[in-house]
Amino acid sequence: MKPSDVDVYAPPENSHVSPRALYVHVPFCRHRCGYCDFTLVADKDDLVPAYLKALENEVNRLDGEYEVDTIFIGGGTPTHLSTKQMERLAEILLSRFQLTAGGEFSVEANPDGLSDDIMKTLSGIGVNRISLGVQSFDPEVLKTLERQHTPVEAQAVIERSVDIFAQVSLDLIFGVPGQTFDSWIATLEAARQFPVRHISTYGLTFEKGTDFYRRLQQGRIQVAPDDLERDMYAAAMSQLARAGVPQYEISNFAAVGAECRHNTVYWQANEYFAFGPGAARYVNGVRSTNARNVSRWIHCWLNGKSALQEVEQLSDEEKRREAVFLGLRLVEGIDVSVFRDRFSSDVVEIANASAQQHLQTGLLEIADNHLRLTLDGRFLADTVMADFL
Ligand code: SF4
Predict the structure, then answer these.
(1) Is the pLDDT of residue 4 over 90?
(2) Which of 63, 221, 257, 321 would suit a FRET pair with 364, their CA atoms being 20 to 30 Å apart?
(3) Of 104, 111, 263, 262, nearest to 172 (Cα)?
(4) 282 pLDDT exceeds 90?
């Protein structure tokens, strides 16, 4: 399907259903960390004005105004923008999108260079949730990851954030080359000392095209042993649960009521708007992704042309399978009755033979009218979920 075949940006005028979530990608960082394959440019702040103009053009691709329940500004490092640039970004978004009363407005941020001024600006534009890329409280691990902040700086930023934002989330990484089990436990314990109600933990991956991947190929860096990584993941599950922040998704932990509402839209296979280079949206049953090349995306939108890289109209069967694939990420799993009402089919029946086998071998279970991964299944989540695609 060609991008022009379908309106990937907005629901039809007569539609009663409109996405209730908005994602915006800000592709700027001071430095590219060796493991990072996100869509971004490092140390190219001169592109920010053109990015904002291009973003305005892309957002204005929509007619009318839309009310959303969640806004998520991700990156990159959105807080790399100046206060004026951040205000301009908010002006562009809020000209088309209104956050419903009680809505969630998240921004991703790095402890590195996160000034009081930018935090005040975020609060002023309505941000009520900040997700901090802390990654570790071990200076050696931060050095390996090429992060630009120290543990002390991270602690100071967390303390200031909890005073300003209703919700604060910390991102942590395990399975880093050279990281010991004790270092990971110390990081989890340090995180627990703060009154934060949401923590994300990610196992380090070596993505093609990254500096870490090259070093891995050259034998200059080692992947963490599988059993160590498994122990680290298990420790996060048990320690954070004991701290009142239980797991609710493969990589996410939250106190009751503090789950990320925006990301839950993705896991429940609901639709969302998205703007910015590399941004992926789901509107009108069509998934589409913008060009990842930041300069190309800017150039296109400065010239009034859309910069779509991929467009995929999902068939009913694909929608069903995707809903299972995504829904299994949630610890509570997929509500069998809700699934039947939504897709007019039985969630278990769409499982192929290997997925059926996971029910027999105990990686999947049906309990409380939900299909879900068991605890053992969570350790092999990627393999089990892939069998539904
Ligand atoms: S700060 Fe985050 S987004 Fe920026 S390069 Fe590092 S990992 Fe990637």
Answers:
(1) no
(2) 257
(3) 111
(4) yes
